[in-house]
Amino acid sequence: MDSDMTFEARLGDALGRLAELAPTMDDAAVARQAIVAGESARSGGWLASLRNGAPRGFGLGRPMLRAAYLLIILALVLVAILAAIAGGAFRNDSFPSSGRNGAIAFTFGGNNHEPVVTHLVNPDGKGDRPIDAGRCPTYSRDGSVLASLSYDGSAYLAVSAANGDPVGRVLLVEGSLTSVSYALSPEGTRVAWFKPIPANAAESPSPDGGSATIGDRLELWVAPIAGGPGTRIVTASNLLDDAYESPLWSPDGGRIAFAGSVADGSGERHRSAIYVVDVDDAELRRLTTRPALLGDGMSWSPDGRFLAYPGLPDGAPIPPSSDANPPVAYPPRDVFLIGADGSGDRNLTNTPASESQPDWSPDGAYLAFGTAADGEAHRITAIHMNGPTPGGPPALGPESEWFVWSPDGTALLWLEVSSLGSEKYRSTLHSVDRDFRQAPLTLQAVDGLIVCKPSWQRLEP
Amino acid sequence: MMDLAVQDAAALDTTVRLAAQGDEAAFTRLVSQHRAAMASVAFVICGDPEATRDAVQTAWSIAWRRLPTLRDPEQVRPWLIAIAANEARQVIRRQRRRPVVDISKAAQHDAGGDPADAIGLVDLQRALAHLKPDDRRLLALRFVAGLDSTEIARHTGLSASGVRSRLARVIDRLRTDIDHG
Fold first, then answer.
1. Are B64 and A16 an interchain contact pair (Cβ–Cβ within 8 Å)?
2. Rounded distance, CA A440 to CA A310, Å?
C-alpha cells in the first residue's frame, strides 16, 4: 500500500474491509419471507389502488402530456403569486436599513484532503487571507463578531474579532464527534446550539458542562460567548429526533425558531413542526406542522413578523416508513409563509418544482430561494416581496447549492462547483445582482470544496 | 464482449420484469444477485449483525411489493441498495441506538498484517459510531456500493453537489478523529 495514499482511499479500503464482516443470510429464506410479508400489501392497499388507475409495468408514459400539465400548473401558480403580492399581502414598511458589504468568510477543504481552512476575502474578491478560526464561520448581524466551530476532542465555538483574530472559545458539546448546529445572536453576544444528550438521560448533566456520551436526543441551549453558564431553553422532551438544522435567531434577538419532529400517531413516515421559543422565559410555541422533515433554510423577515420555510403541502399522506423507502419520491416542496405568532400559514409558491432555502433580503424587498424542476439542478430565484412585481414571473438565476445575500441587499453570493476529474473539484464564488440581469462577478476560486455556506459581514451604512 | 454485455442486460431485464410480475423464482434470483451488496451497505450503517439482517429482510419485503413501480430494470442495483441503506438508517433511528462496536471481530480482522497506514477497523467502527445515520448512509453508498454523487442524490433527496459537500465534511470529521484521535 502506497504510504502516500490519500485518506479517502484509505477510508474506502477500510470501509470495504468492514463491509466484509456483514452477516450472511440464506437467500432462499430471505426471498420466501419477503414474498410472504409483502404479499398482502402487494395484493391490496394503496399500491393496488394506484395500479387500478394506471397500467402495471415499467415506464411513465405520456411524457409530453405530463410536461404540458406541469407547465399549466406553473403558469397558474405564478399568476396566483403575483396576485397575492400585488394585493400587498406581504407588504411591510418597517424593515431595517441595509448595511454595507464587508468581508466574506468561507471554509474549504483542498482536493488532497489537507486540513480544512477558513479564509476571509474582501467583497471585491481581493485580499484573500487565511485566518486562525474554525470551520463554518458566521458573522453576527452587526458584523462585529466572527464565530466558527472547532473540534478539539470536543466541539467548541471559536470566537474571533471581525478581522479573524482569535478572542476565545465556548465549549458546546464535550466529546462530540458529530457536527454541531449553532447560531450567533444578532448582536453577537450569545450563541444558541443543539446539544446532544445521552439516549437514556432525562437531560444533560449540568447547565455549563457537556455530556460525555452522545445520545440521540437534543436540547436547545443559549450561552454568552464571553463566558459564563449557559441556559437550557428547550428540553429533550420537546425535541424528539436528531433531524434539526441550525436554530434561527429572530432579528431582535428575543426569539429562536427551529424545526423538530413530532409524533402525531397518524402513521405518516415523518412529520415535523416549526417552533418559536422566547429566549428570556423559554416559552415554547408550535407554529405549524407539516409532513416530512422541515428546517432546511428557514428565514425570518427582517422585521421579525414572518417566517418563510420550505415544506410539503398537506395532501396525499406519505406512507409509513416501510412503504416509503426511496423508490417513492417525495412530492416537491413549496415555500410557505407563516406569521411569527402562527397565523396565516400559507403556500407562497405552490409550483410543481421543488423549492428550498428561502431567505429574505436584508431590506425585506425580496425573498430568494432555490428552485429545481424534476431532475434538474437547483437554481436561484427571487420574488419581489414589497409590492407588485413588474414584468411577469420571477427571474431564474444561476445554478447553485446555496446562496448568501449581500448585506446591502443588492446581490447574491453563489457557488459554482466544477469537476477536475477523479473526485477533485474547483469551487468558485460568484456574486450576481438580485434581478439576475447582469453578468456574475467572480470573487474567488479554490481547488477543493467549500464545505459550508459562507458568511458575509455587514458593516454599518 | 459487447454481445455478452447485451446478453447480460437482457437477462437482467427479463429477471426484473418477471419478478415484478410476481415470478417467485426470478425474485429469488434477484435476492441471490444483490443480497450480499445490500447487507454490506446496511452493515456499515448499522454496525450490528442483527440490525443488518432486519434491515435487509425488510428491504426485500419492500422490494417485492414495489418492483412493479421500478421504471428502469437497469437501475435495480442502486434501487435495491438505496432501499437497504434507507431501511438500515430507519432501523437505527427506530431503535435509538448507536452502532455496536464488536471489537473482537474487528480486531481479528485487523490482525491480518495490514500496513501501518491502513485504517484499523476498531478505529473505524468507533468513529462511525459517532456519526449520524444519514452520514453513515452517505459513506456506505459512496465507498461500499460505489455509487457516484449523482446516483446517491437520486436516492437520498439531496442534490449532487449537496452530496459532495456533505461527504467532504464527513470525511474531514473522520480524518480528524482517526488520524489525530
1. no
2. 26
Say if A34 is an interface residue toward chain B (CB within 8 Å). Answer: yes
Instruction: Note whether A140 and A153 are within 8 A (CB).
Output: no
A58 vs B20: CB contact, 8 Å cut-off? yes
Predicted pLDDT at A242: 46
Q: Which residues pair with A193 in a beta bridge?
A: A182, A221
For residues A285 and A274, what is the distance between their CA atoms, to the nearest angstrom? 9
A188: nearest Cα among A221, A231, A145: A145
Rounded distance between C-alpha atoms, residue A258 and residue A457, angstroms = 23
DSSP B70: -
DSSP state of A332: P
Written as nine digits, the cell of B48 is 450490528
pTM of the model: 0.65
| Identity of residue A107 | T
Which B residues in the span 162-181 are in contact with A, Cβ-Cβ below 8 Å? 162, 164-165, 168-169, 171-179
* Cβ pair B54, B94 in contact under 8 A: no
Sheet holding A379-384, edge to edge: A354-360, A366-372, A379-384, A396-399
| Region B44-63 average pLDDT | 90
Mutation target vs A (from B66, B76, B123; most A CBs, 10 A cutoff): B66
Q: Report how far residue B113's alpha carbon sits from residue A237's, in angstroms, rounded to the nearest whole number.
A: 48
pLDDT score recorded for residue A206: 40
Q: What is the pLDDT of residues A103-130, one digit of tens each?
A: 999 998 888 767 789 999 999 999 999 9
Q: Which alpha helices (DSSP H) does A107-253 contain, by range?
A: none
The DSSP letter of residue B73 is: G
Q: Which three cell numbers stand for residue B161?
A: 453537489
Those residues with Cβ within 8 angstroms of residue B175's Cβ, 6 or more apart along the chain or in another chain? A7, A11, A113
Nearest to A389 by CA among A381, A378, A377: A381
In chain B, which residues have their Cβ closer than 8 Å to the Cβ of A14?
118-121, 124
Low-confidence ranges of chain A (pLDDT < 70): 1-5, 38-97, 113, 176-179, 198-217, 236-245, 263-270, 292-296, 315-331, 374-376, 386-393, 423
B122–chain A Cβ distance below 8 A for any pair:
no
Tell me, yes or no, if B27 comes closer than 8 A to chain A by beta carbon: yes
C-alpha cell at position A407: 448585506
